[in-house]
Amino acid sequence: MDLFAEDGRGETAADAAARAAALRAEIARHDHAYYVLDAPTIPDAEYDRLFRELQAIERAYPALRSADSPTQRVGGKALAQFATVRHRVPMLSISTETDTEASGAFAFDARVRRALGLDEDDAAVAYAAELKFDGLAISLRYEDGVLVQAATRGDGETGEDVTSNVRTVKAIPLRLLGEAPPVLEVRGEIYLRRDDFERLNARQAEAGEKIFVNPRNAAAGSIRQLDPGIAARRPLSFYAYGLGEVAGWTLPATQTEVLDALAAFGLPVCGHRAQVRGAEGLAAFHARIGALRDTLPFDIDGVVYKVDALALQQQLGFVTREPRWAVAHKYPAQEAVTLLRDIEVQVGRTGALTPVARLEPVFVGGVTVTNATLHNQDEIDRKDVRIGDWVIVRRAGDVIPEVVAPILERRGGELPRFVLLDRFPTCPVCGSHVVRGEDEAVARCTGGLFCPAQRKQALLHFAGRRAMDIEGLGDKLVDQLVDAAIVKTPVDLYRLGVLALANLERMGEKSAQNLLMAIEKSRGTTLARFIFALGIRNVGEATARDLARHFGKLDALIAADVDALQQVPDVGPIVAKCIAEFFAEPHNREVIEQLRAAGVHWAEGEPQGSVAGALAGKTFVLTGTLPTLSRDEAKARIEARGGKVAGSVSKKTHYVVAGAEAGSKLDKAQALGLAILDEDGLRVLLNETDTNA
Ligand code: IVH
């Protein structure tokens, strides 16, 4: 690139480079404030503006796209397998103190003192006391301050190169702050906060995907994802706790100062740590963390004590593969035995039925437990838990208590197996049918719009911008309307009056009028939007559009059987089954009838089948991430219309479809003067726009 060549705007590449560097530093500072210090410094909109400006510069000058640019967190391709990384300093584990009482701390201190040859008159040893995070150990290698490699622990000698995935973790800086040494390997733990874990599982359930048993498995599974695009959607966190290889940096004298230095480099270091003296100091830390353990936003596996002075650590050395200078001190298992009286179910926001054990009340880890989760039918089968069993119940942090296992020796005679679908063929909340997909762990209520348990969620979806588009009907309002029993199903929205609304909190007459107007406006819609608004599982916007185009009329769709549904492009057996089940449910048909009676209407068309062939002979190239279509979906749609999708841009390419973070293909397309489309443009070509649906 000619650094002094002017572009059309009278701006040189050198200006752009300087501006990009300034933006990168500023964005990194805001990321640090937000993800590490938990103290955001600017509004989201302003942050987005900076980010987009940087993206624009990098699009214009691709050579400026450096590895430490925040725009490059998700960029890696899906891998066939991970490469192996040899750790230059082995990643060791620490021994666990089996005595979970305060005496465990005294035993460790005694071992350290003996090994150091200290006697009773010598001063107390200083320790760094930390949390033992329950996640996945990771080694981050920074060279000249830039993150160049991230590896799992593996067997301690060699691990897996998970750099692309780790780069997506926003709390991990891509470039260190301040004067960074030539080589700095940081060791720490990738983990998931409990709230992020719950949200992730809710999302997984909604998408009919695998539910993770605990935050640790979810974190490990996410980092070992071969597709960094998926890892990027997992809300992972990180805490640094130590060092690996270091070159060109004078080590501080203590572990405490090492962690202070890592924090100053911009790495997340947990605030719950202390420099303590002697066994009493360790025991006090153990007790203090034990008391606040349930209030931490993440799971811990105990605490870790480390001799604070690095010189003493060196003197103490290792026994086999474990350092003599560190130990993990756990907490007593929060487990108890009690009688399983009954199994009931809870219906979640997405209709998932979770079996819940009703227990003879039992005191575990400081609280009385009467209910515990059994997760799903597969878990019940795997553990072979039956009503009437004596069971082990466990509490971990403030997550819902769970039934670990039955005590088979105490089972009195034959107890019947528990089969959720036999016991709950219909939803205990709304009476709709319960179904369980062939490959699914979860049983679900098909009540959808009708089921009170799913009501808020269904209403929010119904009112959404891409569905019925009722402006102003957000979470808070839906909560109030449902809690006050003013709205039960979407039909009730069309029966609302100003009076009922104006009496709600924070809702004056003016906003009530506006909302009513928005509701009124939503009566006139399109068939595609209406189908999407119904919230049929696995029917997203694109499928709703296909269904609308294919069937033309709602009644034709309602009447379609599984075979007829599979004639629609991209509708396979699973989606077809969800649609058929939805319309088979009398409650759902009733709600639809009532909506039509309330004046919800759309133009009905003739069935169109697919418009195959419209794009015959046209070659497309896809680049970047589109807002709603995945690469595969876009490709399938183009091909369904007779088009071809090629991997690289040439003069023969007809259209380049570019999404966010499009790379060199876009630059080349621009250079060749090819037609460049965004997702909306593609949809117009595919004849998928709303007006046609
Ligand atoms: S120090 C040589 N500190 O526990 C000492 N480890 O068996 C290296 N862990 O898998 C470990 N929190 O990932 C250390 N504050 C902490 C830790 C911690 C969690 C994990 C670590 C490793 C295991 C050690």
> At the first level of CATH, what is the class of the largest domain?
Alpha Beta
Beta content: 15-25%
Kindly give the count of domains. Answer: 5
Cofactors and ligands present? Answer: 2-(butylsulfanyl)adenosine
Question: What's the rounded overall pLDDT mean?
Answer: 89
- Main pleated sheet: 7 strands, antiparallel
Work out the number of β strands.
Answer: 24
Task: State the gist of this model.
The protein is α+β, with helices and mostly antiparallel strands. 36% of the residues lie in helices and 19% in strands.
What would you say this structure looks like, in words?
By secondary structure, the chain is an alpha+beta fold. The protein has 5 domains: 13-72, Helix Hairpins; 112-330, D-amino Acid Aminotransferase, Chain A, domain 1 (2-Layer Sandwich), CATH 3.30.470; 335-419, OB fold (Dihydrolipoamide Acetyltransferase, E2P) (Beta Barrel); 452-597, 5' to 3' exonuclease, C-terminal subdomain (DNA polymerase, domain 1, Orthogonal Bundle); 619-685, BRCT domain (Rossmann fold, 3-Layer(aba) Sandwich). Strands 14, 15, 16, 17, 18, 19 and 20 form a 7-stranded antiparallel β-sheet that branches. β4 (136-143) and β5 (146-152) form a beta hairpin. α18 packs across α19. The chain is globular. 36% of the residues are buried. The mean pLDDT is 89. It binds 2-(butylsulfanyl)adenosine (IVH).
